[in-house]
Amino acid sequence: MSFREKSAWIALLAYGGVFGAYFIALWQAWDPANGQPLSIGPLVAAMFAFVGIVTVLTIVAALLNPKAANAPADEREKLIELKAERAAAYTLSTGVLLSMTGLLLGFNGYLIANALLASLVAAELVKAGWQIASFRMGV
Amino acid sequence: MAIENEIRRLRFAHGEMTQAALAEKVGVTRQTIIAIEQNKYGPSLEAAFRIANALNTPLENVFRWRKD
To answer: H-type helices in B1-68, by residue range?
Structure first.
């Protein structure tokens, strides 16, 4: 497995695990009458957890194969990243448009902010998943 | 993919060169050499020439167009 595929796996696990837990907590605590069940604390905790997990796992992956970690991306890796970023951009655009629609329909700012965050996370999950699939099945 | 290659055969004919050694000479990852060998990735023209050069053979001996 190449270093960039490992990086994609790390991103997939970190985004899926940390923000999956965050959004599940948000869903369980959601009270439509209140409309703002969680403070900013869980989001900040999720951000720190995400950065910590990605940093530690990336350092471990780099230490296991420093040569590969320091090597520049080759043409296939660059192509895979570009295609994955295109798919992620479509995902993010769709999420932003849906969030804007929610704003027009009168949903509160807290919900819209989380919808935008979910769009960003979904885009990153699509990017990482696309990269892994491309590395495995070919471009 | 419509492009086929003889990289695997040529590697063995070239002192049993490993995929890693070829990748090092070409300047790509071993995974990219594997993908090219398995016809999962069509390399750029420059990479194709680099592969041919590393195997000391003309480009047409390495890659060929498969007519369907």
So the answer is: 7-13, 19-26, 30-37, 45-54, 59-62
CB contact under 8 A, A135 and B38: no
Q: How far is CA A41 from CA A26, A61, A106, B13, B63, in A?
A: 12, 30, 25, 63, 58
Measured distance CA(A40)–CA(A103) in Å, rounded? 20
Going by the DSSP 8-state scheme, the letter that residue B67 receives in this structure is: P
pTM attached to this predicted model: 0.84
Q: Which residues contact A125 (CB under 8 A, 6 or more apart)?
A: A12, A15, A16
Residue A34 has pLDDT above 80, yes or no: no
Tell me whether residues A138 and B35 touch, CB distance under 8 A.
yes
ipTM score assigned to the predicted complex: 0.84
* Sheet strands (E) in chain A: none
Q: Residue A9: its chain B contacts at CB < 8 A?
A: none
Specify burial of residue A136 (Cβ count, 10 A radius: 0-12, 13-18, 19+).
Answer: exposed
